[in-house]
Structure to design on (289 residues):
Protein backbone atom coordinates (compact mmCIF):
# COMPACT_ATOMS: atom_id res chain seq x y z
CA UNK A 1 0.00 0.00 0.00
CA UNK A 2 2.86 2.36 0.81
CA UNK A 3 4.34 1.69 -2.63
CA UNK A 4 1.05 2.63 -4.33
CA UNK A 5 0.83 5.80 -2.22
CA UNK A 6 4.35 6.94 -3.11
CA UNK A 7 3.75 6.06 -6.75
CA UNK A 8 0.53 8.07 -6.70
CA UNK A 9 2.33 11.14 -5.36
CA UNK A 10 5.07 10.85 -8.00
CA UNK A 11 2.66 10.30 -10.88
CA UNK A 12 0.36 13.11 -9.76
CA UNK A 13 2.97 15.85 -10.23
CA UNK A 14 2.76 16.38 -14.03
CA UNK A 15 -1.04 16.04 -13.92
CA UNK A 16 -1.28 18.58 -11.10
CA UNK A 17 0.99 21.09 -12.81
CA UNK A 18 -0.86 20.74 -16.10
CA UNK A 19 -4.19 21.10 -14.28
CA UNK A 20 -3.00 24.22 -12.47
CA UNK A 21 -1.96 25.71 -15.79
CA UNK A 22 -5.24 24.79 -17.43
CA UNK A 23 -7.20 26.11 -14.45
CA UNK A 24 -5.86 29.65 -14.92
CA UNK A 25 -6.58 29.51 -18.62
CA UNK A 26 -10.09 28.12 -18.33
CA UNK A 27 -11.11 30.37 -15.46
CA UNK A 28 -10.21 33.30 -17.72
CA UNK A 29 -12.46 32.03 -20.53
CA UNK A 30 -9.93 30.25 -22.77
CA UNK A 31 -10.68 26.54 -23.23
CA UNK A 32 -7.18 25.10 -23.17
CA UNK A 33 -7.05 21.69 -24.78
CA UNK A 34 -3.43 22.43 -25.77
CA UNK A 35 -1.98 21.42 -22.38
CA UNK A 36 -0.54 18.33 -24.01
CA UNK A 37 1.55 20.48 -26.35
CA UNK A 38 2.82 22.57 -23.40
CA UNK A 39 4.00 19.43 -21.62
CA UNK A 40 5.68 18.03 -24.70
CA UNK A 41 7.47 21.21 -25.77
CA UNK A 42 8.66 21.85 -22.21
CA UNK A 43 9.84 18.25 -21.74
CA UNK A 44 11.75 18.31 -25.00
CA UNK A 45 13.27 21.77 -24.57
CA UNK A 46 14.42 21.12 -21.01
CA UNK A 47 16.01 17.77 -21.88
CA UNK A 48 17.66 19.00 -25.08
CA UNK A 49 19.00 22.23 -23.61
CA UNK A 50 20.24 20.51 -20.45
CA UNK A 51 22.11 17.90 -22.50
CA UNK A 52 23.60 20.48 -24.89
CA UNK A 53 24.49 23.12 -22.30
CA UNK A 54 25.49 20.82 -19.45
CA UNK A 55 23.45 23.02 -17.08
CA UNK A 56 20.32 21.83 -15.28
CA UNK A 57 19.31 25.40 -14.44
CA UNK A 58 19.48 26.55 -18.06
CA UNK A 59 17.51 23.49 -19.14
CA UNK A 60 14.75 24.11 -16.59
CA UNK A 61 14.45 27.77 -17.58
CA UNK A 62 14.37 26.82 -21.26
CA UNK A 63 11.59 24.30 -20.74
CA UNK A 64 9.42 26.70 -18.74
CA UNK A 65 9.96 29.61 -21.15
CA UNK A 66 9.23 27.50 -24.23
CA UNK A 67 5.96 26.41 -22.65
CA UNK A 68 5.13 30.05 -21.93
CA UNK A 69 5.89 30.98 -25.53
CA UNK A 70 3.68 28.19 -26.87
CA UNK A 71 0.94 29.27 -24.48
CA UNK A 72 1.25 32.87 -25.66
CA UNK A 73 0.93 31.84 -29.30
CA UNK A 74 -2.06 29.65 -28.49
CA UNK A 75 -3.77 32.42 -26.51
CA UNK A 76 -3.11 35.07 -29.17
CA UNK A 77 -4.58 32.83 -31.86
CA UNK A 78 -7.68 32.15 -29.75
CA UNK A 79 -8.20 35.71 -28.51
CA UNK A 80 -7.38 37.84 -31.52
CA UNK A 81 -7.78 35.22 -34.23
CA UNK A 82 -11.22 34.47 -32.75
CA UNK A 83 -11.06 30.83 -33.75
CA UNK A 84 -12.67 28.01 -31.83
CA UNK A 85 -10.44 27.25 -28.86
CA UNK A 86 -10.91 23.49 -29.12
CA UNK A 87 -9.93 23.39 -32.79
CA UNK A 88 -6.89 25.62 -32.21
CA UNK A 89 -5.81 23.59 -29.19
CA UNK A 90 -6.04 20.38 -31.21
CA UNK A 91 -3.89 22.01 -33.90
CA UNK A 92 -1.23 22.91 -31.33
CA UNK A 93 -1.17 19.34 -30.03
CA UNK A 94 -0.70 18.03 -33.57
CA UNK A 95 2.04 20.62 -34.07
CA UNK A 96 3.89 19.26 -31.05
CA UNK A 97 3.54 15.67 -32.26
CA UNK A 98 4.98 16.59 -35.66
CA UNK A 99 7.48 19.40 -34.99
CA UNK A 100 9.39 17.99 -32.03
CA UNK A 101 10.66 14.89 -33.90
CA UNK A 102 11.85 17.16 -36.74
CA UNK A 103 13.80 19.39 -34.35
CA UNK A 104 15.12 16.35 -32.50
CA UNK A 105 16.32 14.87 -35.78
CA UNK A 106 18.17 18.05 -36.68
CA UNK A 107 19.86 18.24 -33.26
CA UNK A 108 20.61 14.59 -32.47
CA UNK A 109 20.04 12.75 -35.76
CA UNK A 110 17.23 10.70 -34.22
CA UNK A 111 13.48 11.30 -34.05
CA UNK A 112 12.38 9.17 -31.11
CA UNK A 113 14.19 10.68 -28.13
CA UNK A 114 16.96 12.94 -26.92
CA UNK A 115 20.20 11.41 -25.64
CA UNK A 116 20.01 10.32 -22.01
CA UNK A 117 20.73 13.20 -19.65
CA UNK A 118 23.49 12.37 -17.11
CA UNK A 119 22.20 11.59 -13.64
CA UNK A 120 24.00 14.56 -12.10
CA UNK A 121 21.97 16.85 -14.39
CA UNK A 122 18.62 15.45 -13.29
CA UNK A 123 16.40 15.92 -10.24
CA UNK A 124 16.51 13.02 -7.80
CA UNK A 125 13.70 13.92 -5.38
CA UNK A 126 10.25 13.80 -7.04
CA UNK A 127 8.50 14.35 -3.72
CA UNK A 128 9.99 17.85 -3.59
CA UNK A 129 7.98 18.59 -6.73
CA UNK A 130 4.87 17.25 -5.04
CA UNK A 131 5.53 19.54 -2.08
CA UNK A 132 5.76 22.42 -4.56
CA UNK A 133 2.32 21.53 -5.93
CA UNK A 134 0.86 21.90 -2.44
CA UNK A 135 2.45 25.34 -2.11
CA UNK A 136 0.98 26.23 -5.52
CA UNK A 137 -2.42 25.03 -4.36
CA UNK A 138 -2.33 27.48 -1.45
CA UNK A 139 -1.14 30.21 -3.81
CA UNK A 140 -4.04 29.52 -6.17
CA UNK A 141 -6.55 29.69 -3.34
CA UNK A 142 -5.12 33.05 -2.32
CA UNK A 143 -5.00 34.25 -5.93
CA UNK A 144 -8.67 33.62 -6.68
CA UNK A 145 -9.98 34.70 -3.28
CA UNK A 146 -7.90 37.72 -2.35
CA UNK A 147 -6.13 39.34 -5.32
CA UNK A 148 -7.32 41.76 -7.96
CA UNK A 149 -5.71 39.71 -10.71
CA UNK A 150 -7.53 36.58 -9.58
CA UNK A 151 -10.87 38.39 -9.47
CA UNK A 152 -10.28 39.79 -12.95
CA UNK A 153 -9.38 36.34 -14.28
CA UNK A 154 -12.67 35.03 -12.89
CA UNK A 155 -14.57 37.98 -14.36
CA UNK A 156 -12.97 37.43 -17.77
CA UNK A 157 -14.32 33.89 -17.74
CA UNK A 158 -17.75 34.69 -16.35
CA UNK A 159 -18.68 38.16 -17.59
CA UNK A 160 -16.00 39.88 -19.69
CA UNK A 161 -18.42 42.70 -20.56
CA UNK A 162 -18.28 43.78 -16.92
CA UNK A 163 -14.52 44.28 -17.25
CA UNK A 164 -15.02 46.38 -20.37
CA UNK A 165 -17.40 48.71 -18.53
CA UNK A 166 -14.60 49.28 -15.98
CA UNK A 167 -12.09 50.09 -18.71
CA UNK A 168 -10.22 46.78 -18.35
CA UNK A 169 -9.31 44.88 -21.52
CA UNK A 170 -10.42 41.32 -20.83
CA UNK A 171 -8.35 40.04 -23.76
CA UNK A 172 -5.11 41.05 -22.04
CA UNK A 173 -6.33 39.43 -18.83
CA UNK A 174 -6.93 36.21 -20.75
CA UNK A 175 -3.54 36.39 -22.45
CA UNK A 176 -1.77 36.90 -19.14
CA UNK A 177 -3.69 34.05 -17.51
CA UNK A 178 -2.89 31.59 -20.32
CA UNK A 179 0.81 32.52 -20.37
CA UNK A 180 1.09 32.26 -16.58
CA UNK A 181 -0.67 28.91 -16.68
CA UNK A 182 1.60 27.70 -19.46
CA UNK A 183 4.66 28.54 -17.37
CA UNK A 184 3.27 26.37 -14.58
CA UNK A 185 2.46 23.56 -17.02
CA UNK A 186 5.99 23.87 -18.39
CA UNK A 187 7.33 22.85 -14.99
CA UNK A 188 5.32 19.66 -15.40
CA UNK A 189 7.13 18.99 -18.68
CA UNK A 190 10.46 19.61 -16.97
CA UNK A 191 9.50 17.06 -14.31
CA UNK A 192 8.65 14.44 -16.95
CA UNK A 193 12.02 14.57 -18.71
CA UNK A 194 14.42 15.60 -15.93
CA UNK A 195 12.99 13.87 -12.86
CA UNK A 196 10.56 11.11 -13.75
CA UNK A 197 12.61 10.29 -16.85
CA UNK A 198 16.21 10.59 -18.01
CA UNK A 199 15.50 12.69 -21.09
CA UNK A 200 12.78 13.29 -23.63
CA UNK A 201 10.94 10.34 -25.18
CA UNK A 202 8.53 10.83 -28.05
CA UNK A 203 5.00 11.67 -26.81
CA UNK A 204 6.08 11.04 -23.22
CA UNK A 205 3.20 13.11 -21.84
CA UNK A 206 0.99 10.07 -22.64
CA UNK A 207 -2.28 11.96 -22.47
CA UNK A 208 -1.61 13.66 -19.12
CA UNK A 209 -2.72 16.99 -20.57
CA UNK A 210 -6.13 15.53 -21.37
CA UNK A 211 -6.34 13.84 -17.96
CA UNK A 212 -5.56 17.23 -16.38
CA UNK A 213 -8.48 18.73 -18.30
CA UNK A 214 -10.75 15.99 -16.97
CA UNK A 215 -9.51 16.75 -13.45
CA UNK A 216 -10.35 20.43 -13.92
CA UNK A 217 -13.89 19.53 -14.99
CA UNK A 218 -14.23 16.97 -12.21
CA UNK A 219 -12.97 19.64 -9.78
CA UNK A 220 -15.54 22.19 -10.99
CA UNK A 221 -12.81 24.65 -12.00
CA UNK A 222 -11.81 25.11 -8.36
CA UNK A 223 -8.26 24.59 -7.02
CA UNK A 224 -8.86 22.23 -4.08
CA UNK A 225 -11.32 19.83 -5.77
CA UNK A 226 -9.08 19.82 -8.85
CA UNK A 227 -6.13 18.87 -6.64
CA UNK A 228 -7.94 15.81 -5.29
CA UNK A 229 -9.23 14.89 -8.74
CA UNK A 230 -5.63 14.81 -9.98
CA UNK A 231 -4.67 12.56 -7.07
CA UNK A 232 -7.50 10.20 -7.99
CA UNK A 233 -6.37 9.92 -11.60
CA UNK A 234 -2.76 9.45 -10.47
CA UNK A 235 -3.94 6.69 -8.16
CA UNK A 236 -5.57 4.85 -11.07
CA UNK A 237 -2.28 5.16 -12.96
CA UNK A 238 -0.32 3.84 -10.00
CA UNK A 239 -2.81 1.01 -9.64
CA UNK A 240 -2.41 -0.11 -13.24
CA UNK A 241 1.37 -0.15 -12.84
CA UNK A 242 1.09 -2.37 -9.76
CA UNK A 243 -1.41 -4.69 -11.47
CA UNK A 244 0.75 -5.41 -14.52
CA UNK A 245 1.81 -9.04 -14.52
CA UNK A 246 -0.40 -9.93 -11.57
CA UNK A 247 -2.34 -13.20 -11.52
CA UNK A 248 -5.89 -13.04 -10.13
CA UNK A 249 -7.78 -16.28 -9.46
CA UNK A 250 -5.28 -18.13 -11.62
CA UNK A 251 -5.80 -15.77 -14.55
CA UNK A 252 -3.12 -13.34 -15.75
CA UNK A 253 -4.78 -10.08 -16.80
CA UNK A 254 -3.36 -8.88 -20.14
CA UNK A 255 -1.23 -5.76 -19.69
CA UNK A 256 -3.14 -4.01 -22.48
CA UNK A 257 -6.31 -4.06 -20.36
CA UNK A 258 -4.49 -2.97 -17.23
CA UNK A 259 -2.80 -0.02 -18.95
CA UNK A 260 -6.07 1.55 -20.05
CA UNK A 261 -7.42 1.88 -16.48
CA UNK A 262 -6.55 5.61 -16.08
CA UNK A 263 -8.10 6.50 -19.42
CA UNK A 264 -11.24 4.47 -18.82
CA UNK A 265 -11.64 6.14 -15.43
CA UNK A 266 -11.28 9.54 -17.11
CA UNK A 267 -13.93 8.74 -19.72
CA UNK A 268 -16.38 7.31 -17.19
CA UNK A 269 -16.17 10.40 -15.00
CA UNK A 270 -16.59 12.75 -17.96
CA UNK A 271 -19.61 10.86 -19.27
CA UNK A 272 -21.48 10.54 -15.98
CA UNK A 273 -20.30 13.59 -14.09
CA UNK A 274 -19.49 16.42 -16.50
CA UNK A 275 -23.13 17.08 -17.36
CA UNK A 276 -23.79 18.15 -13.79
CA UNK A 277 -21.07 20.80 -13.81
CA UNK A 278 -21.29 24.33 -15.17
CA UNK A 279 -18.19 25.68 -16.91
CA UNK A 280 -17.25 29.38 -16.74
CA UNK A 281 -20.07 31.19 -18.52
CA UNK A 282 -17.92 32.98 -21.11
CA UNK A 283 -15.50 30.16 -21.90
CA UNK A 284 -14.65 29.93 -25.61
CA UNK A 285 -16.51 33.13 -26.49
CA UNK A 286 -15.95 36.88 -26.61
CA UNK A 287 -17.70 39.59 -24.64
CA UNK A 288 -21.15 40.68 -25.74
CA UNK A 289 -20.60 44.20 -27.06
Amino acid sequence: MEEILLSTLRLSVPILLAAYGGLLSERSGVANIALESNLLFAAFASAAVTFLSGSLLIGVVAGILISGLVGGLFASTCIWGRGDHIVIGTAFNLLAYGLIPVINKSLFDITGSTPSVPVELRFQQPLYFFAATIVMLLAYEYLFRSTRHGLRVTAAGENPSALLTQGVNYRWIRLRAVVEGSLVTGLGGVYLSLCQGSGYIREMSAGRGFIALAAIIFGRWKPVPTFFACLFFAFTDALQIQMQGKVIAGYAIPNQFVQIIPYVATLVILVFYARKISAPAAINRDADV
